[in-house]
Amino acid sequence: MAAEIPGFLLDYLAQRDSARANAAAEQFATLTDRERGLVHDAAVMGYVQGMRHPHGERIPKDHQIVALVVQECLAFADLYPTLTGYVPEPAEDPTP
């Protein structure tokens, strides 16, 4: 049988979660557009790679992870434009 977590502790944990979220948002707001883009691209790709990593397998060295992430970003250039420099081509005007 699991013990119930006291309400005061749940309140404290919720306050700490909120404080961390606010601190992260404040820090993110201080970044330039390019820095925010790089953080976005790295965070999303890091999450994707983490979800794909087989449970129990050795985690690669940092330089191997960086190389893999850059390769994957280049493979999906339109999803990671800050890193890849992707600029969509303007749509052609169908009228002659």
Largest sheet: none
Uncertain runs: none
Count of beta strands: 0
What pattern of helices and strands is seen along the backbone? HHHH
Strand content: under 5%
Structural class, by secondary structure, is mainly alpha
| Rg calc | 20 Å
Number of helices: 4
Task: Estimate the global geometry from the Cα principal axes.
Answer: extended
Q: Helix amount, in percent? A: 55-70%
Give average pLDDT, whole number.
Answer: 87
C-alpha end-to-end distance: 75 Å
Kindly describe this structure.
- With 96 residues, this protein is an all-alpha fold.
- The protein has a domain of 55 residues.
- Helix content is 64%, strand content 0%.
In short:
The protein has 96 residues and is mainly α. The chain has a domain at 32-86.
Sequence-ordered SSE layout with sheet pairings:
Layout: H1 7-29, H2 33-52, H3 62-75, H4 81-84
List keywords for this structure.
single chain; extended
